## 1
Amino acid sequence: MTQIVHLSDLHLRSSNKPNMTSELSYSNRKVEALVRRIDQHFPHAHVVVTGDVTDSGTPTSVEAAYAILEPWLRPDRLSVVPGNHDCGTKGGVWIPGRKRNLIARFARSTPQKYPWVKMLGNIVLIGLDSTADTPGQLDEQSLLGDRRYRELLTPIERALLLTARNSIVQLAIPLLARAARRIQFAVGRLGDDQLFKLAQILVAPEMRKRIPVVIMHHHPRVHEKVKGKFISLADSKALMNILEGQTTGKAVTVLFGHRHHQDSWEEGGTRFVAAPSSVEVFQGVLRFRTLNFNENGFVSEEWHTMPWDEITGRTQSWAKSLS
Ligand SMILES: [Fe+2]
Ligand SMILES: [Fe+2]
């Protein structure tokens, strides 16, 4: 039996402090408490964090995330994938180098090249970067260097950017464009290269006896339950075609986060599992899932809760698992 602890959307910050959304406040202290409890109760499980590890990907918040998750920085204990909040300011403005820095910092536990593959017993864990190839992504380039990004700006904004020597102006223009909803990288995209490689992985002969588990940040399909197209995955149809078309291995499980809503369903032979934010207090508790797999595939999922006192920021006694 292989067990996975599914965490998501930790929104860690440079220090423990309130957040704009009160449910996500004091995320650092909450994750510290989760790490202690998971070590106590699930010392042998593999922990996955499906994106938004940090709230804005700043170097100091990445260092805080590194320090808090440090006890788990081994390939067999932890895997993380990036989310839109790891790429820039407030999940909406891309800042060059932020995502790359996060990925490099977690290299002790998670491969840096996407898609990546990890063997965990009978499970093949496949990591996808759903913030790849998004309009506005400027990971390696300046704001002006990205053609797709320039096309999203008005002629006036473009002219201002071209003449701006001031970094505040360079940041303000994309913020304005975002406010007008012309730039929105909360929409995810896997990109053709990653999708092609995923299809190859899933039909590889080595997969025949193994259980594929895909982890990513964005919601993998434009499902009828999804409200608001701005947070979906742009190439979800292509992903669904690959998942439905793969027949070599056993049924695929897809773990993800992003919307901060929990969900779990089976469709076309694939199991989809959405995690809420692991730092969001829901009815007075923090919650997360564990998923159990045997040699034939997914067996069961269980919820675990930890009461959280928002006033003192302290955990109370460890609640019994809900299953
Ligand atoms: Fe999030
Ligand atoms: Fe997100």
## 2
Amino acid sequence: MTRYEAVTGPHSPSGADNPPRPSTPRTATSGMPVVAMIGGGQLARMTHQAAIALGQTLRVLSAGSDEPAAQVSADVVLGHHDDLNALRTVATGSNAVTFDHEHVPTEHLETLVAEGVNVQPPPSALIFAQDKLRMRRKLAELGIPIPDFAEVTWVGDVTKFGDDHGWPVVVKSIRGGYDGRGVWMPNDADEAEDIVRRELDRGVPLMVEEKVDLRRELSAMVGRSPFGQGAAWPVVETVQRDGQCAVVIAPAPALDEDTAIDAERMALSLAAELGVVGSMAVELFETNDGRILVNELAMRPHNSGHWTMDGCRTSQFEQHLRAVLDYPLGDTTPLAPVTVMANILGAAEAPTMSMDERLHHLFARMPDAKVHLYGKGERKDRKIGHVNVLGGAGSSADGAYVAAVREKAERAAHWMSHAEWTDGWDPHA
Ligand SMILES: Nc1ncnc2c1ncn2[C@@H]1O[C@H](COP(=O)(O)OP(=O)(O)OP(=O)(O)O)[C@@H](O)[C@H]1O
Ligand SMILES: [Mg+2]
């Protein structure tokens, strides 16, 4: 395994025992493309998996050699995403630079573009996934339905918003949030004051928006290439627990066909309008009065697209690579009438039974369950893997059938998290 380290910068791991190595990374000898991904998490790990099939090299910029993608890629640059020199190192000799998260400082990306690096999605598009306030303003300008919102510069902005729109309200950090971290729902002005003062004092820029009366959450995922080709996957339902995605049902059950087509078209035109390149998720709210509002954008593979790994002809990871390299995009046809993805989350206390033994038992009970593990340690509510279960070919996608597939996927994921069958099943009974 060859590893390259960023040779300068505050986060570079070089020291007396670990002298800097040459900063020019290896380029693939095969003549096939090298894609550099910033971030070594599970999204990069699964993109690496797709890159292998396409004969490509996925080089990752990872903060540590134990991160999910750094464990598996043969081409790892150790360094931090806010260190410009680390970014330059990983970009050198690559055909495209892309991301597994949105935390890279925009000005660094603009510097890379000015230096001739092919950054995809470009920072001019990525900014609308990085900055929730800019995203809201842009969507409003484009006439896309969104929750009412306002910028927060002091506590009074939130109390006024709550008094005008009703409590509770939703306060969000404008940058850097994920998995519900950076989202607060104060019930009244007192609660809002505590949160807003604390976060503003910590230097966290905030916005506020109305708490939407949700029927459910949906996601419209698309891929778009620089050539301008777009491809949409079916709209899915996403089930959140504690602000974090837990389950995805594809396609979204009982979603009116016209609404689904409108949402797919909206996501495709938004991708074109913003100049997005790669896979993009448009997180949606379906309201109790039947409206579809946009929550946020993610310009990378996304948890709501993990089902495509087993449930579609082209996965979101392969599509992302095709798009950033400007290949023709792949067919997004589903392979089953319904696919359910359930996240495997770390338990509060890791079970005594090893992960390996849990996998043996799962396979014994459910030979058709497709398991993806990220190589991460078990910590409470941490996403450590996911399970995809496909409905049988030819079966109808009615309510009871979808519920049965969902139950199976959730039972499998719960087993992998807790070493506990939710129906009390005992293999030795
Ligand atoms: N305006 C709102 N009204 C009602 N619920 C909301 C609102 N905004 C956010 N939520 C809930 O909080 C969750 C997390 O919010 P959001 O998607 O904005 O944050 P995030 O931390 O960036 O999420 P992600 O996990 O997608 O990175 C949403 O999926 C939704 O369940
Ligand atoms: Mg979200």
